[in-house]
Amino acid sequence: MSLIENDAPALKSKTTKADIKRQSILLIIAGLYVIYGIVFYYLPLLGWIMAFQNYKPRDGLFGSEFVGLKWFKFLFEDKTFLRVLRNTLAMGVINLVATTITAIGFAILLSEVRNVLGKKIVQTISYLPHFLSWIVVTSIVRDAFATKGMINELLLNLHIIKTPISYFMETKYFWPIVAISNVWKETGWNAIIYLATITAIDPSLYEAAAMDGAGRWQKIKNITLPGIRSTIIILLIMNIGNVINAGFEIQYLLGLGVLLPVSQTIDIYVLNYGMSNFSLGTAAGIFKTFVSMILIFTFNYIAKKTGDERLF
Amino acid sequence: MFKKLTKTKMNGWDWAFVICNTIFLILFCAVTLYPVLNTLAYSFTDGSEAILKNIHLVPRKFTTAAYKKVFNMSGFRQGLIVTVSRTVLASFLSLGANALLAYIISRKNFIFKRSLSLFWVITMYASGGLIPSVLLMTKLGLTGTFWVYIFPGLVSAFNILVLRTYMSSLPDSYEESAQLDGAGHMTIFVRIISPLCKPVYATVFLFVAVWHWNSWFDAMIYNRLKSQNTTLQYELQKLLSSLTQLNPSADSSGKVTDMTTEIQVRAAATIATMLPIICLYPFLQRYFVTGLTIGGVKE
Fold it and tell me: Is the Cβ–Cβ distance between A136 and B270 less than 8 Å?
């Protein structure tokens, strides 16, 4: 996949004066879009100046005192920020790994189903949680993991635990709960692309393998997985930048009280401290964009070196 | 292909796999559906019953009292109106705006094709972050208004990419033959290309609609002080957190009567906010699966 379409040079040279005249209406409209883009997407980038200033609303963007990298230094000396950074990266990586593996696993298992109606029903059900808001999902998760909730009830009935666990009272359960919530919400949705890729694999490969006496597991290992390899890599590159965006909503809604030391992410930090100190909040925002760019380009580079799949 | 495969003999391992796989997928569906159905059951159960025994899938002493209570809350009703308005308005406006731009970028001989694409791809990766956006909305006078939900995000690079990829995959001959008949670009876009793009239009429409229906963060940031502009999810969040705060030990059976009604009201409000989207998505499924796979990664 490439983000910018490349045309053959031959096609480009075909643009004639008559074409351009016909395009005048498109050019005017495109110009309006560029104005919109500048206002809503590029003007905020100008706000990055604030990170290098002691921004005061009274003095404005160009009148505030310039302080260089002060706020970035502040961030890296701030224990809260370092802890928040750890939480963000940890939850980001755990979520990415967990949701990728479950989506691939679910797609493979579903692709093995021969019953068309059954497959359709399972798929439709699997999309459902994707459409629920995090407000609804956190409310469900809070109930499920409550002291008298269904998880404790189930574990008690199976005699795995003797007394109910207070999941929201101990910090060690929070990251797994976030991962489980993400898996519950997105597995079916993320599987859509993998399932489509598996369906597109040449069926004759499976037939040939069957003739050679390959079992189901061997077919999955030697045909299905290599067949979706490039999709996995591309989606990983696309999502790796989001590790730094580990989430805001579930942590903000669920990680309260004793959980604060493990639940706060960079976004919550920006919300808590940035709304009163614009310079600090902007510095944290720039840091986030920077890390996400580095991650994307690094993984794109590694993918380019090790194989032929890449995003750019 | 499928016929051939079923004809090949299944050995013991194959049967074991099929049975395990079926059981696993049924369990998967159960885990997905149970919390939602459980909430549904609670929302219809009479208050005094809910505390006596755990409710699982079937409501006991059926009542719609909780729903009446939820829809009588002024905040909830007001949030519903704002959310419905923004979802309907933004979905149509966004779809139109993104589709037109995607049409322009996908024209093979458009002179600024590459630079215009690049202009929008950059916005996907370089973002100003929360604070500059908040400042911009204040400067534009959008803070504290309904329009703060509509204008930012009206055009989004991701949706343009999805639409553009689909439009590029359409044969050029449609455009060429319409051109020969003297049709201008706007006519071609509205009459020729758009009808062919139904699947991808439905996909983008659904993406945008779901995003708007479920959003609450912008309501919290920009309209916290204007209660007539808050959204449904924000009101739901206020309801849920106020109830937990009222009764922090909601698990201990201390305040029996209060607690049962609280559980019911929470459940009813949750179900009421998720219902429209749940009713909508199964019918758009066919579209978003093709739209997502063609427009997304497969290129």
Answer: yes
Q: Is residue B15 part of a domain?
A: no
Question: What average pLDDT values come out for chain B (299 residues) when binned by 10 residues?
Answer: 52 84 94 91 77 71 82 88 95 96 90 89 84 91 93 91 87 87 88 90 90 92 89 90 54 48 84 89 82 55
Residues of A with Cβ-Cβ distance to B79 under 8 angstroms: none
Decide if B123 contacts A41 (C-beta within 8 A): yes
Measured between CB atoms, does A292 come within 8 Å of chain B?
A: yes
Cα–Cα dist A259/A180, whole Å: 17
Q: Which fold has domain A70-306?
A: MetI-like fold (1.10.3720)
What are the backbone dihedrals phi and psi of residue A66, each rounded to the nearest 5 degrees, phi first?
-85, 125
Task: Annotate A121-184 with three-state secondary structure.
Answer: HHHHHHHHHHHCCHHHHHHHHHHHCCCCCHHHHHHHHCCCCCCCCCHHHCHHHHHHHHHHHHHH
Name the domain count of chain B. 1
Cα of B264 to nearest chain A Cα, Å? 13
Domain ranges (residues) in chain A: 16-66, 70-306
Domain of B103, CATH number, reads 1.10.3720.10
Which token pair is B9? 């003999």
Point out the residue among A122, A133, A210 whose CB comes nearest to the CB of B8: A210
Q: Are the Cβ atoms of A274 and B38 closer than 8 angstroms? A: no
Q: In chain B, which residue's Cα lies nearest the Cα of A32?
A: B101
In this prediction, residue A88 carries a pLDDT of 93
pLDDT in tens, A242-297: 888 877 889 999 888 889 999 999 999 999 988 889 999 999 999 998 888 888 88
Structure tokens at B281: 């998505």
Mean pLDDT of chain A: 87
Confirm whether B118 is domain-assigned. Answer: yes
Q: Does A31 touch chain B (CB under 8 A)?
A: no
CA distance A250 to B136: 26
Residue B92 and residue B106: Cα distance in Å, rounded?
Answer: 21
